[in-house]
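Worked Example 4.2. Consider the chain below.
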Amino acid sequence: MNIDLTKYKTIVFDCDGVVLDSNITKIDSYFRTAKKLGATDVQAQMLVDHHVKFGGISRYPKFVWYIEKLLKEKATKAAVQEYLNAFSLAVKKGLMRCKIADGLHALRNKIPDAKWLVVSGGDQQEIRGLFEQRELAHLFDSGLFGSPDNKDEILAREKKNGNIEFPALFIGDSKYDYESSTRAGLDFVFLSDWTDVPDWKAFCAEHKIHVCRNIQSL
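Applying the procedure from the previous section yields the following structure tokens:
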């Protein structure tokens, strides 16, 4: 079944695994950050596993969980910031090198009148700087949004202020992408090529989610 993208007034994109092939970069950066700050290999892998389990969720609560639940320490603002700073440094180089989705510019040309925006679990300022450097920002005329606000908060806010007009479609690659976009009343397409969700086939079948391989296949 093909999707008629021309019917949508707004297209919302996740970033990692959708616009950029960056899921592996993020996984590697979580592991390296934990190791840099004293973790064992087992602890670092547990942080990675937690990150993958809660794909699409921002790094902020993940590091709070790691400090409090795994290290059994107090997640002070300073402690969390130390992890955030180390992670940002670890991930920056990888994001500049990772592949941009084929067909992205062709899709923009196909639906020139639709609003485009990014709603990501990644850091908002990081995403905005990255997209400027990689000459992608101009494609997303309705904005680039990310943490510390979560996707539910961003979608609700952008709906309320009229930035998301309906009918609207969310293109994502995680369970949280599906759940948050559904709660906001958007249609949803799951992209499978770069996802790090291990049981995505079963999840999409259970929820009758439309699956495409990648942006180009749209």
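The mean pLDDT is 95. The CA atoms of residues 92 and 118 lie 18 Å apart. Compare this with Example 4.1 before moving on.
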